[in-house]
Fold:
Amino acid sequence: MKLHPFDTCVKRAEELMQRGANIYQQFNCTQCGAKQTMGTPNVFFEKGACDQCQAVTNIRANGCNYAVHMLIGGKRAT
Structure:
């Protein structure tokens, strides 16, 4: 997964949330490389623990991405 600067992701995500989207922050574990998705929508965390190796990643320093869930044409997109 391509990572982007933390502040850039937050800014764009806020725009999408204003349009009704739910945003799930994603990051790559810096120790094992596993893709991680936060379970809390519409919140950006600066650090995250890997569910596979338990290492803590500094997301602010390493970058992140996000998944967008929103209604399109009356159906929930995932």
About this structure: DSSP finds two helices and six strands in the chain. The mean pLDDT is 93.
